[in-house]
Amino acid sequence: MRVSPFLCWTAGLALVTSSLPAFDFGQLVPDSKTLQLVGRSVESVNKANQDLTPLQQYYLGRAFGATILQNRKPLDNEAANRYVNEVGQALVQASDQPPTYAGYHFLIIDSPEANAFSAPGGFILITKGLVKMTTNEAELAAVLAHEIGHVALDHGVKAIQKDRLTGAWVGIGADAAKTLGPSEVAQMTEAFEGSVTDLTKAVVDKGYSRDTEFEADSRAVTVLRRTGISPRALLGMLQELRGMPQGNGSSLSKTHPSPQDRIDRVKKLVGSDGQVTVSPTQESRYQAALGGI
Amino acid sequence: MYAQPSATAKFLGKVPYGTVLTILESKTGWARVSAESSGLTGWVRSQAFTTKDLNLKAGAAASGASSTEVSLAGRGFTEEIEQGYKKKNPTLDFADIDKMEALVFSDQDLDSFLTDGGLDPDGGRP
After folding, report:
1. Residues with Cβ within 8 Å of residue B87, at least 6 apart in sequence
2. Which residue of A has its CA nearest to B19?
């Protein structure tokens, strides 16, 4: 009966037009079976970040991606990008967070460094260097599942400074019946710019907190398992990272706990899971798409 | 959420932000839904939802949402704000983001990808 969130992102957002006790205000993704409700309340002014609507997260994610791609180019290889998206979507259908406004999207960045970035709205960027470190589809899935975990757990949204949004929204909220005037647009654009800066700093420079990374690993284990991939693939991937020469992956080691710390945590989660197996189909499509990059 | 398809029926509880609901059955004006996160199952009014665009026009608050709520949902980061941001930052690469978004898969494609690879097309759900 249930439809996976991934499958229902064909229509636009809608909103509640009558007030119910259950939903003060909200929006939904029209679908025959699954609705995503986004309730709102006046209190949300005080926790504006967490209450960014999927549409607003989408615009933030686009701007974040556009910022990353200022200095890094996408890998010009349609088959490879298509395959990474297929693996990513296969995982998204097993992830149980509400769907993003425009679904998840994945892109390989043409860079030898080993890193991956995720932004609100489901925009996930992975470097060629990291893709090449994976040895099979399961390990690629493990990397993508970790990034999907960040999106699902709203880590990007939480990285935005609390006062960024509150100020802008409270100021404009007082006058909601009018269309935005030039100064309000300027104020909102400034809040947007600041939010993108916060997000970029957190994801690219500072990294999320250690706990946040462990949470994303934990979510990845769940999603891999549901998809039918042994979560031990994540352990395999972390071992690859651990073996990476110092300096090679500086951008990733700067923003993540040490692979050994993550391995120790993940080991506790995968106790009863079997070894990683890769079917001949998985192996041949992995090689066909990524063997030559 | 109510125990019966009636606003006078027993009120079972609220459904928080971001909850994914599954529709179990529909009746004129009402739908019986379950919320996976809380395990709550009950009836909600189906007229609570429309397919109107999220970008609210002035006056949409008439239905009961306060002006603050309306502004929060409809006046946040929008196409208009993105355009202003682009103008201020002309070196940003939105073209590749548009391209990235344009790649979509049909349900059938995704199902085949999962099934062919020996993966679970139901995402672990029974």
Report:
1. none
2. A37
Residue A89: CB atoms within 10 Å: 24
ipTM of the complex: 0.77
B61 vs A94, residue with greater confidence:
A94
CA distances from A247 to A36, A233, A242, A257 (A): 44, 24, 12, 15
Cβ count near A194 (within 10 Å): 17
Residue B124: which pLDDT band, with cuts at 50, 70 and 90?
A: confident
C-alpha separations of A197 from A11, A241, A276 in Å: 30, 28, 39
Domain spans, chain A: 5-290
How far apart (Å, rounded) are the C-alpha atoms in residues A8 and A50? 23
What does the block give as tokens for B115? 């099934």
Distance in angstroms (rounded) separating the CA atoms of residues A270 and A234: 10
Instruction: Please answer yes or no on whether A282 and B120 come within 8 Å at the CB atom.
Output: no
B106 touches chain A (CB under 8 A): no
Report, as ranges of residue numbers, the positions in chain A whose pLDDT lies below 70: 1-51, 97-99, 166-180, 246-251
Instruction: Provide the shortest C-alpha distance from residue B44 to chain A (in Å).
Output: 8
Instruction: Give the confidence band of B23 by pLDDT, cuts at 50, 70, 90.
Output: confident
Q: Is B3 on the interface with A (CB under 8 A)?
A: no
For B67-123, write each residue's pLDDT tens digit: 333 333 445 788 888 999 999 999 999 999 999 999 988 888 999 999 999 999 888
Contact A237, A167 (CB under 8 A): no
Q: Which residue has the tokens 């120790």?
A: A264
Query: What pLDDT, on the 0 to 100 scale, is given for residue A104?
Result: 93
Are A242 and A260 a contacting pair, CB within 8 Å? yes
Q: Using CA coordinates, name the residue in chain A closest to B76.
A: A56
CB distance B68–A173 less than 8 Å?
yes
Q: Which residues of A touch B91 (CB under 8 A)?
A: 70
Query: With an 8 Å Cβ cutoff, is B111 touching chain A?
Result: no
Nearest CA in chain A to B60: A17
Cβ separation of B81 and A179 shorter than 8 Å?
Answer: no
Of B21, B47, B85, the CB nearest to A37: B21
pTM equals: 0.72
CA count, 13 A, side-chain hemisphere, B111: 7
Please answer yes or no on whether A178 and B67 come within 8 Å at the CB atom. Answer: no
Q: How far is A263 from chain B (nearest CA, A)?
A: 24
